[in-house]
Amino acid sequence: IQKLIHLLQVTDDPLIQEQALITLSNSAAFSVNQDIIRNLDGLSVIGGMLSDCIPKVKEKALNALNNLSMNIKNQEEIQVYIAHVCGSVESAPLNSDLQLAGLRLLTNMSVTSDYHHKMINSIPCLLHLLSEGTERTQIQVLKVLVNLSANPAMTRHLLRAQV
């Protein structure tokens, strides 16, 4: 795991980055590895990949963070990327794998109400995706919206959102 994280830091080759991110994502399926990745500063390295201009690299980084977000301590670190993830969802091509990866991460990050306030500005986008997206996109958006709607503090923001 340490070598994969180091590889992400030193290479500019998108194919190597994708493969390293896929492997880290698969590793994160095991809870013990989630802690190891966090302790090796892997969350910030993977989070840094969200700024990559290559959509496939961003998508793989989102998938890795999604798997890592099953851990409360990891969520505390991942939450700093929520605004960036929301921006990626908004700017990604409609129904793309990149958009779906971002929505899956937002779903996990919205399971508790701790970070809902960071998603308020994206509610109009989510509602737009609900009306314009394919069934896969709509289902993922609904998961985020259901999580947000479970928080009474979000009611006003959800009902006043302009689409």
UniProtKB/TrEMBL annotation:
InterPro entries: ARM-like (IPR011989), ARM-rpt_dom (IPR006911), ARM-type_fold (IPR016024), Armcx_regulator (IPR051303). The keyword Metal-binding does not apply. It is a single-pass membrane protein. It is found in: Mitochondrion outer membrane. This is ARM10 protein. One of its GO terms (cellular component) is mitochondrial outer membrane. The gene is Armc10. Residues 2-163 form the Armadillo repeat-containing domain. Keywords: Membrane, Mitochondrion, Mitochondrion outer membrane, Transmembrane, Transmembrane helix. It holds the Pfam family Arm_2. Its main location: mitochondrion.
